[in-house]
Amino acid sequence: MLKRRRYIERTGKALHSGKVSTVKIWPGFAGEGRYFDFRSNVIPATIDYATESPLCTTLCKDGYKISTIEHLLSALEAMGVDNCRIEIANSEPVGDDHHVEVPIFDGSASEWVEAIEEVGLKIATDECGNSYEKMAAHVNKPIRIRKKGSFVAAFPSPKVSITCGIDFPQAPAIGSQCLSSVPFDNSYYSNQIASSRTFCIYEEVEKMYELGLIKGGGLENAIVCSASKGWLNPPLRFHDEPCRHKVLDLIGDLSLLARFGNQGIPVAHIVVCKGGHALHTDLARVLSVS
């Protein structure tokens, strides 16, 4: 958990709503796990409260929604922040204010990783000063899910690893990419995954606007690829940055399996091809009951 008496505070613009929100992350007691506090409404960061939403992952409870949680939760899961209260609020509440979105910053998880490293971590204890052993679920038999040409699976493995493939034939500059056997440890994550930014196809931007999405999007918080002109805001941070960002998203979505301060992502070899948030959370739901 975060060091007691220290907390993280960050303010920024949201990707889809375009609104400004503030996030404060407070250290929690052992066994509490990760949970959001929005207008005094507690929403656990678990798969039980994940709902279908376009181009992001959303938690919903009692009519209150928190969107675009994946980058923040990805950083917390990978960096070992297992018990914390995530206080979030819109900077300019309007009306009943039942919806808030986590800031996007530069489109990666770097802002959160840097903030965690700045405040430091310590072993979580309960209110009596007792610490608990951190547990992780193991996948004992293969689990496979297919959906509309996409595929995700979890295979038994002695350690966590991730293989991710993407395919964007409509944008040759992205094309087909694969990142194989990515280890799950905070050093690899902070150096090789966290800084990879969200991306989009330029020719699809207008359609997303029409759907009421990416109102806060711009070249400062996403890498944009044109089908005919290639990358519009180079340079990339990695030659396969889009694929790495998919791994970042996957870790954030599978973090929703975490309960009571334990590890979210299961001990397994996770393989995903042409995945997205809906497919990731489908896997999380299956794993949560298997």
From TrEMBL:
Biological processes annotated in GO: lipid A biosynthetic process; lipid X metabolic process
Catalytic activity as recorded in UniProt: a UDP-3-O-[(3R)-3-hydroxyacyl]-N-acetyl-alpha-D-glucosamine + H2O = a UDP-3-O-[(3R)-3-hydroxyacyl]-alpha-D-glucosamine + acetate
Alphabetized Gene3D superfamilies for the sequence: lpxc deacetylase, domain 1, lpxc deacetylase, domain 2
A Pfam match: LpxC
GO molecular function, one term: UDP-3-O-acyl-N-acetylglucosamine deacetylase activity
Pathway annotation: Glycolipid biosynthesis; lipid IV(A) biosynthesis; lipid IV(A) from (3R)-3-hydroxytetradecanoyl-[acyl-carrier-protein] and UDP-N-acetyl-alpha-D-glucosamine: step 2/6
PANTHER family the record matches: UDP-3-O-ACYL-N-ACETYLGLUCOSAMINE DEACETYLASE 1, MITOCHONDRIAL-RELATED
Protein's name according to its UniProt entry: UDP-3-O-acyl-N-acetylglucosamine deacetylase
Organism lineage string: Eukaryota, Viridiplantae, Streptophyta, Embryophyta, Tracheophyta
